[in-house]
Structures are given as structure tokens and as C-alpha cells.
Amino acid sequence: xxxxASLVAMVVALALSxxxxxxxESEYNKVKIWPMPASVSYGHSHLYLSNDFELSTNYDSxxxxxxxxxxxxxxxLGHIIEANFSALHLSPLLRGLHIVISSSNHxxxxxxxxxxxxxxxxxxxxxxxHLEAQTVYxxxxxxxxxSQLCHFNFTSRVLEVHMSPWTIIDQPRFSYRGLLIDTxxxxxxxxxxxxxxxxxxxAKLNVLHWHIVDSQSFPxxxxxxxxxxxxxxxxxxxxxxxxxxxxxxYAQQRGINVLAEIDVxxxxxxxxxxxPSLWPSKDCQQPLDVSKEFTFKVIDGILSDFSKIFxxxxxxxxxxxxNTSCWTITxxxxxxxxxxxxxxxxxxxxxxxxxxxxxxxxxYEIVNWEETFNDFGNKLSxxxxxxxxxxxxxxxQVVASGLRCIVSNQxxxxxxxxxxxxxxxxxxxxxxxITNLKQQKLVIGGEVCMWGEFVDGSDIEQTIxxxxxxxxxxxxxxxDKLAKNPREVTGRLAHFRCLLNQRGVAAAPLAGxxxxxxxxxxxxxxx
Amino acid sequence: xxxxxxxxHSKFSFFKLLFWVSQLLVLSSxxxxxxxxxxxxxxxxxxxxxxxxxxxxPTLSLSVSGKGGxxxxxxxxxxxxxxxxxxxxxxxxxxxxxxxxxxVYDISELRIIVNSxxxxxxxxxxxxxxxxxxxxxxxxIVxxxTIENVLHWHIIDEQSFPxxxxxxxxxxxxxxxxxxxxxxxxxxxxxxxxxxxxxHVMAEVDVxxxxxxxxxxxxxxxxSSSCREPLDVSKNFTFDLISGILSDIRKIFxxxxxxxxxxxxNTGCWTSTPHVKQWLNDRxxxxxxxxxxxxxxxxxxxxxxxWTPVNWEETFNAFAANLNxxxxxxxxxxxxxxxNxxxKGFRCIFSNQGVWYLDHLDVPWDQVYNAEPLxxxxxxxEQNLVLGGEVCMWDEVADTSNVQQTIxxxxxxxxxxxxxxxEAVxxxxxxxxxLPRFLYFRCLLNRRGVQAxxxxxxxxxxxxxxxxxxxxx
Lengths: 527, 473
Fold this sequence. Notes:
The complex is a heterodimer.
Chain A: H1 2-30, E1 39-41, E2 45-57, H2 62-76, H3 85-88, E3 93-101, E4 116-120, E5 127-133, H4 136-147, E6 150-152, E7 159-164, E8 166-170, E9 176-182, H5 190-202, E10 207-211, H6 241-252, E11 257-261, H7 293-309, E12 314-316, H8 325-329, H9 331-339, H10 344-361, E13 365-369, H11 370-376, E14 384-388, H12 394-400, E15 404-407, H13 410-413, H14 422-427, H15 437-442, E16 443-450, H16 460-464, H17 467-476, H18 490-502
Parallel strand pairs in A: 2-3, 3-5, 9-10, 9-16, 10-11, 12-13, 13-14, 14-15, 15-16
Antiparallel strand pairs in A: 1-8, 2-7, 4-5, 4-8, 6-7
Chain B: H1 13-24, E1 56-65, H2 72-85, H3 92-99, E2 107-113, E3 150-154, H4 184-195, E4 200-204, H5 236-250, E5 257-259, H6 268-272, H7 274-282, H8 287-304, E6 308-312, H9 313-319, E7 328-330, H10 337-343, E8 347-350, H11 353-356, H12 365-370, H13 380-383, E9 386-389, H14 403-407, H15 410-419, H16 422-425, H17 430-433, H18 435-447
Parallel strand pairs in B: 1-2, 3-4, 5-6, 6-7, 7-8, 8-9
Helix pairs in contact in B: 1-2, 5-8
């Protein structure tokens, strides 16, 4: 009897402790907004959106109106909404969203205010939901959050907001929350790029890092040097200047900056298809020929053309994985090195710094991959942002030296490594081991990288999502609101993944490796 | 394959025309294109071409005439294709400035004549068209092309029941969740979306097997709670419910073909459940007799609602002699079935799983391409009984995240087999005649935002094996 009683007691105790865990987890999991906002409070009631749910605002802006209409489309998802509310006895009707924006400045730039406050009233006093923001881009984030509060009820066919009233006060933890795409290893048609941009806005990512050119192909039109895009895979696998401007504009309408990258001096073999003199020699085609003035004229031409299209404050100059052997074995270059008293690594430094000066002369600040910092950090322009990718622990050194940093350590945030799990993406903390507050501010944010060797238009979405969403929350949500155990977010993330699917984004199942097929039949919410 | 009826030109052929035109227009002159091939997919029935390049005005206008010229479907299709074709173009004025010419375009207008004003989309509707692209000196290009024209929607199966059935509202309790559902309006929306693109929707309600999910809302339909398939043949309720479903669905799906399934019926739960076994005994039926009884009864219901029933081939294999003669037999188990079906006077749809099941990832594009629905059928009147064929995208391991690249590009290989002339697709060396065109079409799909997987991979829906041009992967 005694042993039975203690067994029962044990079972009860276990059940109780599980219940407690479940309660706190389930409170957290009830908030099906992704990423988790900085501050959220909610209630227990339902509100219903009226059929003529409207935008009410004094802020005269096509951008805002379009974003509002896009939000409505994404809530409705093509369902027919029931018109006859009185028949359903649904009284608490939300008539619209009232938006107040303080600043009239329309410009999208680095470190604009992205905060917003969203309130959804209680059923006693419905009427309008309210959205306040400093800038229109903060308002866009608020619209995105609102869109995640609304659900189509299949039985009554109305749009509902559950758990009202809501008060959400939100702003991002990091100002740079990026995704890299690579259009050199595989050309990505414009519709694909635009869909990626749309999907970024759902997770509140705000920088599209466009790695446009690399060894394999040069797809972008450069009017100053029109033969450069002879290095495209084919005449139709190209972007005109208008195409690029369209990408920038499409992104801007969604609050997303475009960071253009022109990677030098390595990763540049494709430049020589149009201009073979850029190659050290015909048999040794990378890096770009450091000994020629022409090389830097071309870089200047490219950056000059860039400056007319890419208005983001930064330009990315690459500088990674530079194998300088073609410089030392090519006679005219080794001669040039001797004449200038440089060895290979000094020439690498010379190249990077010279390219930096060109960029600075066009009004840009610079991002460079971390090798430039690792090799000659103290020589870099103080305006350089170092882009970490090789591994952990680099950010700490970068900010200790007083430079800014973007975190993309490949062991956790490289999307084409399919065996990096969701949980690893979620748990990758940019400020690891950085305790000094001033230095923490120098980490401007982070970026997940979708390199293109094994990814093209047919599978890019499912390689990016949902793992990029895990990183998106790490970059947006305040540190103390992040889940300590990444496994806790599975429910919310499954919900977000299904939301992406509903919006036409081919986000892969959570289970298994990146981009896995579902294991068998089943509900979206359990896969 | 011969057309069914000789109706006058209808407007659905308009899509084929525009689709074809859209494939002709490229941003720049062709790259390394093998000039001896025609880069339109599927291959048109007849065509001639020249060697001139004509410039098309991005503000291309539409002028219509004929009885069907005014139809909304026409205008909307034109606008849709215009957006697809001209998405890159914006530099009109630059041309004018450089050349000082007011009109630099050779083609500024598309003139369409549609002879019939009928909007009805039915089996055998005339989908032909003729296209002339000419400059003043009279050179012309004539041709035709299209994509698949029937969406076979296998809505329900044992795992879930996502569709709203107003007459029996608990049926969709069998959906995975309350969000993974289609309202009646959603289904109608799909039908109308398809119609605007010249595509029929053939709905399927698979009975009596593959129906476990029906019992989530109505457990009486299960033989017992521990033996849940097939549907309980012994109850009137079962057939009342099927009749209710068919009535509701008739209002949504106007296509004259309706699929009643009937595949993979394991009658074990009938013979092992006492009250069903009793029912069989009372009527001196074996389980197989009951299977036939069930299928025929469902067929009668469909016919009474104005449908032509389609059934999976097991029904033909098991009781061809008693199958309703209107039945269209849907082959899937393997080759050689359509020849038998048409020999007995039945119409047939070809979906041999060895070659046209898209969920079989190990079937490469050339095997899909080489499959011939009329194989083994030499008599012309029997050939006419083969309605066509269908590729099947079963979803056990496919969902929103990967369904497109599982379907494409291999479905396009079947599409050409089903559209183009048999001689044209039966060339011996398809690596020379079809592969370059197929690669081109895959890249066209990608450019239009369709996630078509690389062509040259051994298995379907694999990523590209490394960096490279779309046209080589």
C-alpha cells in the first residue's frame, strides 16, 4: 500500500510539474506572431473584421495604401468573406485600422526608426484598431503583425481577431537583419527574387544582400562597361539596369534595403569574359589583375553605375577567399609586385583598400568579408563593417578593435548546409561573449546566407524557409524574450511555416534536415 | 489523337495562341539555339517559320472580331499574357531618341477572331487556333501549343476530408485542422480560375475505399470503430450521404466527367464485421459482389445527376461485363490496360504508374516523354476511345513546399505527348530533337515563377548539382 501511495504521489508530482511547464510554455506559445514582439499583452475575446475594413490615416502615401491592400489580400487569401453579419449575430466589429505616422520622411535608410505600437480594442468598444509609428516603415511592420492576428473562420466565413484586446509595442533588437541571395552560381529570375523579398517582409527581415556576381557568371548590366555581362550564362540569364532598379524599388516598398555586393579581387573570373585583360592570364583567371589601372577603372565604373541604382548606405566589396597564386606566377604581375615592393598579401591589402577608396568616393560605406579584417584589420577604413562568416568568435574581436560587425557564422547561419537544424539557427547569438555595452552596439546585426551552388528558382524558397525564420526571431526579438530552449518554439514556428505556405511561400516542413520532403501524409501543423 | 467534335473555333484556343506567341518572344535574340529546332512546347501541329526578327511593341494592343470576340475571358487572358511577356521592357523612349523614328515596332497589334461565342468549357471543345505573325511582305508563322487542360482534383482520401459538404456539414470534421479546409466558395473559385485559363476541373470522390476520413464526422459510415474502410455497404445511410455529396458537388463542378474512384478496395472489414457479413449473406453476395454493387450504385447516382463516371481500372479488371458502358476507365496499374478497355468499347484515360506517376521520383523525363497512350491500339475507332492521359501528383510526400518541382518539368513531357502529333514526338533521338527544347521550356517556366526542377538530374525534384546555366541543368 505504502509503495502504491508513493507511486501515486510521484505520478501526481510529475503531472503537476509538467502542468506548470506546460502552462508557461503554452502562454508563450499562444502568441502566434513571428517574430515575437518586444512587448505583448492580450485578452480572451473575439473581434470580427467588417467587410469594408478600411485604412484610416492622414499620412498621404501610396506606399502605405499599397501595403495596406497587400495586407488585406494576405489575410483573405482568396476566400470569399460572408457579407451578412447580422445573420451570424456577430456584434463586435472592427471597422478599420487607424494609422498615425509621426515623420513625413519617406526615405528608407540604415537605422531608421522601425518601431510601432499596435492596439486592437476590446469587444465592449470595438471600432478601430490603432497603429502608431515614427516612420512609414515602422507602420509596415505593424501591418505585418496585424496580418498575423487575423484568421479566416471556415465555418462562419468571417475574418476574426482572437485574444482581443491586444497591446503590442515592438521594435527590432538589431537594425541589420539580412538574407543573402546569390545570382551568380544560378541566375534567379525576377519573379523569384520578388517572392523572396515578399517572404522576407513576413519575417521582418530588412536587408537583401544581393551577391550579384561571382566566378561563374556576371548577370548584371553595367552601362560603363557593357561587355561585362557577356559573362552571363546566357543572354536571357541577365538583369538590365531597369531590372535591378525594380528589385530595389520592390524591396523598398516593403521596407527592405538592398545591399549590393561586387566581390573583389577574388570570385571574379566572370569579369574576364567581356574584358580578358582583367585576368592575370588566359590560363590563370583569378584574382583580378592587381597590376593594371584598367582593373580599378572598371571597379570605379561599376560602383558609379551602382550608385545610381543602389541607394543603401553600404556597398559590399567582398574580399573573401583570395588565392593570390595567379599573381605570383604571372610574369607581368610578379614584376609589378617587385617594383612596388609588395608581397602577395600586401598586394591583397592594397587591392582591398584601393577598392574601398573608390567606394568611399561614391558616397558608400563599406562591408567586407572577414578575411580582410583577419589579415589587416587595422588598415581597413574605419567606415568598414566586417562581415563575419568563417566561424564563431570573430565578432568579439572585430568590435574590440572598434569596427562594426555583421554576424553570419557559417556553422549556424549558412542555409545551404542542410544539416544545420532549426534549433541551431534559432540559438545562434550574435553577441556571444561580448559584454561591453559599447561594443555590443557595434554588432549591427546578422544575416543568413543562401549561397547558390545547389539552389536555383526551383528550390530556393524551401531552402530558405523556415530556418531563416528562426534566425529572424533571434535578430528581432529582445534577448530576454527569446526562448531559452529552442525546442520551445516549435509550435509557434510550425504555425508560422503554415502561414508562409498559405501565402504561397514554399516553406519546407520543420522536421528533418533543411528542405526535406514531408515524411508522409499529415497536417501542415505537425510536420 | 483526333478531336471529338468539330465545333467552330472557340475562344479557349485563344490561350493556346497567346501561350505560343509568348514562347516566341524573347528579350534578346536566341542564344546558341539550335536553329533547326522550334522552341515552342508542346510542339505545334503544323508550322512554318522564316528567319526574320520582328520587334514587338510593349504596348501591344488587342483588336477582336467574330462572334466570340467580346468575351471577358479573352481580354483577361490577353492582359495576363501581356504581363508575362513584357515584364522586362520599359525603354520605349530610348529607342525613339536614338533612332529619331516615331514608330520602330513591326508588330503593334494582335488581331483575334473568335468564331463561336459559346463560353462553355466541355470535353471535346474545339481548342484549335491559327496564328499568323507577318510583316508586310507576307512571311508567316502558323502554329499551335497548349498545356494540360484537365485538373483532376482528388479531394478526399483516408487521411483527411478537407471539403465543405453543406448537406452533411460534419464531413469536413475529417480535415486535418479547421484551417486545412476548402469552403464551397473556395472550390468554386478554383473552378472559375481554371475556366479562365481553359482548364476543366474533374472532381473525384473515391468510393468505397480510401474513405476512412468520412467517418470522423459520421462514424456510422465505418463498418466498425476498429475497422474503418471501406464505407459500410450495408447501410442506406452510406448511399444517402454519397447522394448528398454528389448533389452539393454538382453545383460546383460543371465538367461532364466525374471521378468515383473505386481503387484498392480491401473488403476485409466487410467480411469481418458481423452486421455487414450478415447483410452479405442475406443477399447471397460475396465481398467482390458487394464491391461491384457499391460501384455500380454510385455510378447510377452520378449518371442521374448528368455526369459521365470515371473509375479507376480495378473496376474494369474486376467486373468489366457489368460496368456501366458510359464508364471511362482510368488506367493506372500498368501498361496494356487501355487496349483491353477500348477493345470492349470503353473509353480510357492513360496514367500508367510506371511512367506517369509524378510521385515516382525515379522516372526521368525521357521515360515520361516516350510513354504512348495509344500503344498497342491499332484500330482507328478504338484509338478514338482513348480520351487522353493524365500525370498524377500523389501527395503522400509532397506538399506546398515541394509540389511544383515534383510536377515540373516532367509533366511538360507528358503534355507534349498528349498535344503534339504522334510522329513529331516519336523521333528516335530525343536527346537531339526534344531535350534542348525541353531545357528551354523548363527555363521559361522558371522565368515565370514556376519552380520547375532541373531537367538533367537522375531523380525528380533534386537540386541542381552545381553552379551553371539554367539551359544546361
